[in-house]
Amino acid sequence: MLVKTRFLTEGCILSKEIRGLADRPIMYEKTILTAESIEALQAFLISEVSVEKTLINGKKFLPKEVIDPELDELEESSDFTELYLKAVQTYKRLFRNWQAGSKVEVAMIRLIIIPLVDKALEDPSNILMLHHYSNKEDYTFHHAISIGLIGSYIASKMKYSKADVYQVAIGGCLADCGMSKLAPRLLNKMEELTAEDYEEIHKHPIFSYKMIKDSSIIKDSVKIAILEHHGRLDGTGYPKSLNAKPMNLFSKIIAVADVFHAMTSERTYRKKQSPFRVLEMILHDDFGKFDIEVVKTLLSSFSSFSIGSRVKLNNGFIAEIIFIDASNQTRPIVKLKDSEEIINLSLTRDLYIEEIL
Predict the structure, then answer these.
(1) Measured at the alpha carbon of residue 223, what is the angle toward residues 221 and 228, in degrees to the nearest 5?
(2) Quick one: fold of 2-74?
(3) Where do transmembrane segments lie in this chain (predicted)?
(4) Which of 82, 178, 233, 240 has the fewest beta carbons under 10 Å from its own?
(5) 222, 164 in Cβ contact below 8 A?
């Protein structure tokens, strides 16, 4: 919806990029506004902006005035965002209940994730931009919903039945429910985790499995996937007791969805990385750890939605993706915004995409 800048509040999400007098982008779509960024808009004499109907905390944004209410009613771009943020906040509430000792209501998880999966599969580009919504404070809750969505999308592209796509979504959402049984200090620790911290965190798949093992809604193979989603094909990962067993197909999908969203999201102790960079690391640095068919399914899907995207390179330059070679999808050909120089990132190994704008 289009609102006056003076009515903005912290937590608003831009639904369209904002350009200055020189027709250069000042802020990009999906930017989460802070007090400082709102002041910057006012300093640039930006009088009105387009924002989503839902704040980053999942609450409805109710400005004092909407510039064009009729246009706002016709706007559907915020539908997915609204559903997603509501799902995150519902999951957050359920997670707090689990911390207090409540049992997992799998039916409730199914209720919040299935409509979101259906909506996302109508426009898969939404799924591949989930990392823009995640924030440090609520990472745990964004991560749960995002694993479910990314996993279900991969399963759909791999021609799984609709029932199994939904099962992957539910399993992905509940893969980390066992984090609720860890000491709260570990969830939002600002500094780098210690060896002792990791030892505790590595227990969460076992807790997750115990919390859902009696559910009649979740297939047994998905329950196993929840237990072993941090396992790796080369025998590394955790829990260690599972490393001698081959991972099932659901486990392989949820494992990739989990690590992809984790590495592309801002964490309290680690900066986010671009999806291209993460997929390159999964393919090469972590070769042999993840199922190659699952990784390539995610990569090819991501690439198909990336042509024309604006990106920031690791040297700070802004560029546009103009071509992606099927044989080297993590390193596309880009055109620099200012000089219009064409750069083939597959031939310039010191450069890579740092961020998708």
Answers:
(1) 90
(2) Molybdopterin biosynthesis moea protein, domain 2 (3.90.105)
(3) none
(4) 240
(5) no
Give φ, ψ of 145 to 5 degrees. Answer: -65, -40
The CATH superfamily holding the domain 79-272 is Hypothetical protein af1432 (1.10.3210.10)
- Tokens 């969460």 belong to 204
Place of tokens 């009105």: 48
pLDDT at 23: 64
CA angle 335, 266, 314 (to 5 degrees): 30
State both tokens at 215: 């559910």
* Cα end-to-end distance, the chain, whole Å: 21
Query: Which helix (H) or strand (E) is 208 found in, with range?
Result: helix 204-212
d(CA 55, CA 274): 24
Reported residue count of the chain is 357
* Res 102: pLDDT: 94
> Does the N-terminal peptide bond of residue 246 adopt cis geometry, omega within 30 degrees of 0?
no
Full-model pTM: 0.80
> What string of DSSP letters covers 32-46?
BP-HHHHHHHHHTT-
Tell me how far the alpha carbon of residue 174 is from its chain's centroid: 15
The pair of three-digit structure tokens given for residue 27, joined into one six-digit string: 């802020």
CA nearest neighbour of 299 among 128, 120, 118:
128
Tell which residue, 63, 53, 68, has the closest CA to residue 2.
68
Helix ranges restricted to H, 48-194: 69-74, 79-99, 106-122, 139-157, 162-174
